[in-house]
Write a structure and sequence with these properties.
The protein is mainly alpha-helical. It has 7 helices and 4 strands. The protein has a two-stranded antiparallel sheet. Strands 3-4 form a two-stranded antiparallel ribbon. Helix 1 packs antiparallel against helix 2, helix 4 packs across helix 7 and helix 5 crosses helix 7. The protein is flat, with a radius of gyration of 23 Å. It starts with a strand and ends with a helix.
């Protein structure tokens, strides 16, 4: 396939031609086949300014190291309080994990949000387990985070005037997440069930509205993404 008599690379899954010299399809990230005989790129090359925030990150790394070292030092001087410095170390590690995800997924704010919600949910349960399991993770944190994520997704879609296909899949995923607290209630893990019930109710209502008003568009988007 070509454009203006020039051969372009082709994605066999999406059945589209891609100009320039990318290695992967911009739609599905599959390897492209063929060779591009054009000697130019579609857009001018602009070098990435990776060094722009390097000083800030280095200062954050230094501050994190200082906090951990200070905690270990004080804990070593006052050992009667237990190994609480390990929780400081774990907290710093969790903060850097969240920050790393935010940086890597910064170009897709909704994907970033979905990743953050997943990580926060898992980490909150781990923190609850290793601090003696008081149930606060399943009683409050996870339901509140899921509902907040659904609200933020809807607001961002309106503010940024995103096309339906750009946010529908992530919105659908967050709605499925919102049903998870129902299993906490049914299994007895959750003792304060009101936040979980509200989360499930909001999720089911949002899911019903999505299927009723955008069901056909969602089915087409799933077919496109899954190449069905």
């Amino acid at each position: 396939m070509g454009y203006g008599g020039c051969t372009m690379k082709v994605c066999e899954k999406c059945a589209v031609s891609v100009s320039g010299n990318p290695e992967k399809c911009p739609l599905c990230q599959s390897p492209l086949t063929g060779e591009n005989q054009n000697s130019y790129e579609t857009f001018p090359f602009i070098p990435l300014a990776r060094h722009k925030h390097s000083l800030l990150f280095r200062l954050l790394q230094l501050a994190s190291a200082a906090v951990v070292i200070a905690a270990l030092t004080v804990n070593g001087m006052l050992p009667q309080g237990g190994f609480w410095s390990l929780f400081v170390l774990a907290g710093v590690a969790c903060a850097w994990l969240s920050l790393t995800i935010a940086i890597r997924k910064r170009h897709n704010i909704l994907k970033n949000l979905a990743y953050q919600v997943t990580v926060i949910g898992i980490l909150s349960i781990l923190w609850d387990v290793f601090t003696g399991w008081h149930g606060w993770s399943v009683d409050f944190v996870i339901p509140i985070v899921f509902v907040s994520a659904m609200i933020v997704t809807a607001i961002l879609a309106r503010i940024l005037t995103m096309p339906v296909g750009a946010y529908m899949i992530y919105n659908f995923l967050l709605m499925l997440y919102g049903i998870i607290p129902a299993f906490f209630v049914l299994s007895g893990l959750s003792t304060i069930i009101l936040p979980s019930l509200l989360c499930v109710a909001c999720s089911l209502f949002s899911l019903a509205a999505l299927l009723i008003f955008e069901g056909r568009n969602m089915a087409e988007e799933l077919k496109r993404r899954l190449h069905l």
